[in-house]
Amino acid sequence: MRNEPYLLFLGAGRWQCHGIKCARELGIKTIAVDANPKAIGFDHSDKVINIDFYKNENRALSVLKKNNFNLRGVISYCNEKGMRLASKIRGIYGLSGIDEKITENMVNKYNQRKIWTKHNLPCPNWRLIKNLTLDIEKI
């Protein structure tokens, strides 16, 4: 089974289900990872890994390594934790796609807006708040 190429989906809920279905329709073998044993995307995936990668990223990586899957790509969308893990997996497996540094700048709103502002890209007014203690008299 090692030679079969797979596309890995981190997340198999309703937001990821359409992507899993589309990959399968194109003849792409899929692996779906999700904490919910009843995730709807599991019904449409070739392989299922029922792991909470939010809480245990290392376990997810270990299962992938143990099964020696021939990963050709990894996708995570609508899921910031999954996007971070996907970029890490790309690095481990030498896959194309967004690397860890770019991913972090995409999901960390402070980094994202700082970069946008530096390059004069449109973005909302923003401010980094380090302490949530409010001075009621100033409000």
In short, what is this structure?
With about 140 residues, the protein is an alpha/beta fold. Helices cover about 40% and strands about 15% of the residues.
Low-confidence stretches: none
**Strand ordering within the main sheet:** 3-2-1-4
Question: What Rg, in angstroms, do the CA atoms define?
Answer: 18 Å
**Helix content class:** 25-40%
Q: Distance between termini? A: 63 Å
- Largest sheet descriptor: 4 strands, parallel
Query: What is the H-and-E element order?
Result: EHEEHEHHH
- What sort of overall outline do the alpha carbons produce when their principal axes are compared? elongated
By DSSP (H or I, 4+ residues per run), the number of helices equals: 5
Average pLDDT taken over every residue: 89
Structural class: alpha/beta
Number-wise, the strands total 4
Oligomerization state: single chain
**Fraction in beta strands:** 15-25%
Describe this structure in words.
- The longest helix has 14 residues, at 80-93.
- 40% of the residues lie in helices and 16% in strands.
- Strand 1, helix 1 (14-25) and strand 2 form a beta-alpha-beta unit.
- 28% of the residues are buried.
- Strands 3-2-1-4 form a four-stranded parallel sheet, sandwiched between helices.
- The chain is of the alpha/beta class and 139 residues long.
- The model has no long low-confidence stretch (mean pLDDT 89).
- The termini are far apart.
- The protein is built from five helices and four strands.
Topology:
Blueprint: E1 5-10, H1 14-25, E2 29-34, E3 47-50, H2 57-67, E4 70-75, H3 80-93, H4 100-107, H5 109-118
Parallel strand pairs: 1-2, 1-4, 2-3
Helix pairs in contact: 3-4, 4-5
